[in-house]
Amino acid sequence: MAERVRLVEVGPRDGLQNEARVLPSSLKLELIRRLGEAGLTTIEATAFVSPAWVPQMADHAEVIRGLRRIPGVAYPVLVPNMQGFERAMAAGVREIAVFAAASESFSQRNINCSIDDSFGRFRPIFQAARERGIPVRGYVSCAIHCPYEGVIAPDAVAAVAGRLFEAGCAEISLGDTIGTGTPAQVQAMLSAVSRTVPLESLAGHFHDTYGMAVANVHTAYQFGVRTFDASVAGLGGCPYASGASGNVATEDLVYLFNGMEIETGVDLERLVAVSVWISREFGRSPASRVTQAVGVVPPDVA
Ligand code: HMG
Ligand code: MG
After folding, report:
1. What three-state secondary structure class fits 173?
2. Are strands 145-146 and 150-151 parallel, antiparallel or unpaired?
3. d(CA 65, CA 57)
4. What is the rounded CA–CA span in Å between residue 44 and residue 76?
5. Domain boundaries in the chain?
6. Test site for ligand 1: of 13, 50, 136, 245, most ligand atoms within 8 A of the Cβ
7. DSSP H or E stretch at residue 110
């Protein structure tokens, strides 16, 4: 059987949370629908965070209620606390992600509490999720570098990832939040983290500020990681990490893995069409080099 990787599309959440223009819910739902039709099987749909902190995600309940779910596609959401969890459950969410950081300063800026306190907030979430059979993913931000503290020691990342795993996260996504990481740093970080979390439970989440994200994904793949987060058209960033650009573009990863004869389940042509369409909505060209290179998209896939 051919080798496979799983791509987690985070554009509707990580992408849109950092766009100055807030898309109407109907357009978000259209984006999610088109991504599902392109073959993405995990689409992070929104975040049940405070609208005062991230106004772009304020319509989280409308987005979940409006989903036209494709069988076999998961639509996880971020939740920072029990309030977010309860609202997510009321809206009909079936998978969630909690988000921690390997840097104290980033934790404070992003979720207004220390790393230890964030685990205190997550504890009831893990318990309630277990009782309801809701899978929980855990993010570790600043897995390489923190915008406030500089380089983060791989052991600090391993410690937070290990805590999330022990607490019951089925998968831990390691975030190069500001996209400064290089392959050598990724390798050093994964060497440490793979001592606390099994490789098959790890995902790579690379932002592309310095253009290293595809190389970092390749390095993580060679290390044994098989799940990667990406954002169509390279949308995104993080509102609490200024200057950081979007996630690696999903279509660039599909192109990478197609070239390695590794299955993603994603139709590149359809995905490029989604990338062109959503970029037009924002009035700019896609950050994806692949979409730029493919150029004009035939109307039948647009
Ligand atoms: P806080 O102000 O400390 O919260 O924020 P609080 O508990 O003191 O409550 C303050 C007010 O917020 C109250 O309202 C609450 O009801 C409300 P008031 O009484 O003043 O009217 N509130 C909420 N409302 C809706 N949903 C909720 C919620 N919780 C409280 N869940 C909090 C703490 C965590 C809520 C806030 O800091 C927050 O929402 N932060 C989210 C930041 C965020 O979304 N960042 C981006 C996602 S992380 C990321 O992008 C990184 C990642 O991509 C990986 C990587 O790249 O590294 C995942
Ligand atoms: Mg991110």
Report:
1. strand
2. antiparallel
3. 14
4. 5
5. 6-293
6. 50
7. helix 104-111
CATH 3.20.20.70 given to domain 6-293: yes
Residue 143 carries which DSSP code?
A: S
Are 73 and 43 within 8 A, CB to CB? yes
CA separation for the pair 55, 192 (Å, rounded): 36
CA dist., res. 80 & res. 122, Å (int): 8
Residue 199 has pLDDT above 60, yes or no: yes
- Residue numbers annotated as active site: 238
Distance CA 69, CA 45 (A): 11
Distance CA 228, CA 164 (A): 18
Close Cβ partners of 229 (under 8 Å, ≥ 6 residues apart): 7, 8, 9, 10, 14, 44, 173, 203, 204, 205, 206, 247
* Phi then psi dihedrals of residue 199, to 5 deg: -55, -35
The pair of structure tokens assigned to 150 is 């500089």
Across all residues in the chain, what is the average pLDDT? 95
Q: What confidence tens digit (pLDDT) does each residue in 53-104 have?
A: 999 999 999 999 999 999 999 999 999 999 999 999 999 999 999 999 999 9
Protein residue closest via CA to atom 33 of ligand 1: 111
- Chain-centre distance of CA 159, in angstroms? 21
220-257 per-position pLDDT tens digit: 999 999 999 999 999 985 556 676 789 999 999 999 99
The verdict on the CB of residue 54 being under 6 Å from ligand 1 is: yes
Show the tokens assigned to 105. 């300063």
44: CA distance to ligand 1 center in Å? 17
Q: Which atom of ligand 1 is nearest to the CA of 54?
A: 44
CB–CB of 9/35 below 8 Å?
A: yes
Distance of CA 65 to the CA centre of its chain: 21
